[in-house]
Design goal:
Helix content: 40-55%
CATH architecture of the largest domain: Orthogonal Bundle
InterPro entries: Cro/C1-type_HTH, Lambda_DNA-bd_dom_sf, MqsA, MqsA/HigA-2, Znf_MqsA-type
Largest sheet: 3 strands, antiparallel
Domain HTH cro/C1-type: 75-111
Protein name: HTH-type transcriptional regulator/antitoxin MqsA
Order of helices and strands: EEEHHHHHHEHE
GO molecular function, one term: DNA binding
Mean pLDDT: 83
Shape: elongated
Distance between the termini: 55 Å
């Protein structure tokens, strides 16, 4: 997009490149050669709309890093570990049919609860089986996962969930 006059004062604008630093909770990133429009009248500056997307991706990556959330490539690796498509994975863990395409491209940042679930799936060999009901589970097996005290008087027989 080319801006020829300032939307505030209607004066002429010039295109220039600047160095911009963004800070979130004490952690900073710097974007070099950021193209902007500078008003020769009022001094207002505008970011080129075509550059907003890439800048937002960098800011989202900074946010994920500071907040301790998984980065997009880590989400891809978790999904691929189980061999599911993005749509299949979303059906199993939730988030909508296009959610994982957005998480994996970095256009949307996953919630803390989704991040926690993905970490559990990554780190626990039983977590996916529990979600997909593929493993026979009884109260005795669930004990360690859910830290439930086993009732010594009860018996445990394996039955498959359906």
């Amino acid at each position: 997009m080319i801006i020829k006059e300032c939307p505030i004062c209607s004066a002429k604008v010039i295109r220039k490149k600047v160095k911009e630093t963004y800070t979130y909770k004490g952690k900073s990133i710097t974007v070099n050669n950021l193209p902007i429009f500078h008003c020769t009248g009022c001094g207002e500056e505008f970011i080129d709309e075509e550059r907003v997307g890439p800048i937002n991706k960098k800011l989202d990556a900074l946010y994920r890093e500071v907040e301790g959330l998984l980065q997009p490539q880590e989400i891809v690796e978790i999904r691929k570990k189980f061999g599911y498509s993005q749509e299949e994975f979303a059906e199993i863990v939730g988030g909508g049919p296009k959610a994982f395409a957005k998480y994996e491209k970095g256009t949307v940042t996953q919630s803390r609860s989704m991040d926690n679930l993905l970490r559990i799936l990554r780190d626990s060999s039983d977590a996916m089986a529990i979600l997909t009901n593929q493993k026979a589970i009884c109260a005795c097996e669930a004990k360690s996962a859910y830290q439930v005290k086993k009732d010594k008087s009860s018996s445990c027989s394996k039955t498959s969930r359906s």
